[in-house]
Design brief:
Blueprint lengths: L3 H14 L5 E4 L6 H8 L3 E6 L2 H10 L5 H17 L12 H4 L2 H16 L3 H18 L14 H6 L4 H25 L3 E2 L2 E2 L3 E5 L11 E6 L12 H11 L19 H5 L11 H8 L1 H9 L5 H23 L1 E11 L2 E3 L2 E2 L2 H11 L3 E9 L12 E3 L2 E8 L3
Parallel strand pairs: 1-2, 1-6, 2-5, 6-7
Antiparallel strand pairs: 3-4, 7-12, 8-9, 8-11, 10-12
The structure holds S-adenosylmethionine.
């Protein structure tokens, strides 16, 4: 993700140069860093993410900010949980007993039942986000990686688990976050009766298929930096939490098929399908000499490496047209790009993306490099390796 400090600095500078900026866009909204920072500047926002959990998180972060009522509702949810003596398990999915100890299933079910009793959808959505974090912390999957990675039997049995205690703590912390966000927005004159004053839309969508987007004055984004299998599997990360959340509370267009397997969301995301048509590599090479050189450098490597990289760039390229359509002419784009190696060679994502965007008439204004001290990364493996720096491309759409 783009760290909040960078997003803040980028928006501050961009708005100073272009005071006419009113709406920011992030086609890969993730956990909503750009959204939150855009709100702090009083901007309207349009975001997209293919992952239902990400879309939900962004929508919660955009309000409403009924912080007093939320405190009251949190006490009610906790009272319902504490008064619930039932043992029934409220979730049914493949391998449930593999991923959750029985006592955790019972406790998470009490939380789920209590949230369902809440009448206001906005409040239920807030509590689902807290439940999502609780699920991650109390499942049998390791928390040190985004991948689903089962703990040993011994570890599973020996863990001291308290899902209800975790949920209560997360709720207290998140209510405080929302209060802090609300008071900052109030100070900026952006909150009226708990509602943010500008238009915020976060669409649960594949950006490649996204139509009907409002026009943005600036795009600030951090796309996936490789296929999910070898970088960050956001879909796997969300799979278990989504089994415990009522999908109808996420939005109207959630396709339950996205939970068909632990890999489904990742398969639908950028680079998710490794199948490459014969003409595709050449189509990208024509527009990006850096891509052509890079693929050439992989010729002694196992074939699937070049294929993986090509599939990712084919998909990234497929996003550019819809993204550019959502940006007003002459608008700025700020792309934060993770850095990775495939087969021991650094993928020049910054160069390739700049060339692909240039082929659409955009112009590179500058490139910055930021060193990263620590970042939760995908586990190193022999196919891909992550590195501790990221590039920031600043580009302008043609007028
Ligand atoms: C690097 S993360 C974005 C981080 C985000 N800027 C933040 O602050 O948290 C990339 C995001 O792209 C999303 N994504 C992947 N493929 C997508 C697609 N085809 N359409 C829309 N979003 C997609 C993933 O679900 C993930 O949330």
């Amino acid at each position: 993700m783009m760290v909040p400090q960078v997003a803040r600095a980028v928006l501050k500078e961009a708005c100073a140069v272009h005071p006419e900026i009113e709406r920011a866009g992030d086609p890969f909204s993730g956990s909503g860093t750009i959204l939150t920072e855009s709100m702090m500047r009083g901007l309207a926002f349009f975001g997209t993410d293919i992952n239902p959990l990400a879309a939900r998180l962004c929508r919660v972060k955009s309000g409403p900010f009924f912080v007093e009522a939320l405190g009251q509702k949190a006490s009610e949810v906790v009272a319902h949980i504490d008064g619930d003596k039932r043992w029934a398990v409220e979730a049914n999915f493949m391998n449930r007993d593999k991923w959750f100890r029985r006592d955790a299933q019972v406790a998470l079910s009490k939380v789920r039942r209590a949230i369902r009793l809440e009448k206001s959808a906005w409040a239920r959505r807030f509590f689902w986000v807290a439940l999502a974090e609780t699920v991650r912390a109390t499942s049998n999957s390791r928390t040190s990686t985004f991948k689903l990675h089962i703990r040993t039997q011994e570890e599973v049995e020996g863990r001291d688990l308290d899902p209800i205690g975790v949920f209560k703590k997360v709720v207290v912390r998140n209510v405080q976050h929302l209060k802090d966000q609300a008071s900052q927005l109030s100070e900026a004159g952006q909150l009226v009766r708990g509602h943010y004053q500008q238009d915020i839309t976060v669409s649960l969508d594949d950006i490649r298929q996204s139509t009907d987007q409002p026009l943005c004055d600036i795009i600030v984004t951090s796309p996936p930096y490789g296929d999910n299998a070898t970088t960050v599997p956001y879909g796997q990360y969300s799979y278990l939490p989504l089994q415990w959340i009522d999908l109808e509370d996420i939005g109207t267009n959630v396709d339950a098929g996205c939970l068909a397997s632990t890999h489904e969301i990742d398969t639908r995301s950028l680079g998710g399908s490794k199948r490459v048509k014969k003409a595709e590599p050449d189509q990208i090479k024509e527009r990006s000499p850096a891509f052509a050189r890079y693929i050439g450098s992989l010729k002694d490597q196992p074939r699937d490496r070049a294929q993986r990289v090509t599939a990712f760039f084919r998909d990234l390229d497929g996003c550019l047209d819809p993204i550019l359509k959502s940006l007003r002419s002459g608008g700025l784009m700020v792309w934060t790009l993770g850095n990775r190696k495939v087969g021991g060679k650094r993928v020049p994502l910054d160069k390739i993306l700049a060339e692909l965007l240039s082929a659409h008439g955009a112009r590179l204004l500058c490139k910055l490099t930021r060193k990263i001290s620590s970042k939760r990364m995908a586990l190193k493996n022999n196919i891909a390796d992550t590195m501790s720096s990221e590039a920031i491309l600043v580009m302008r759409k043609a007028v």
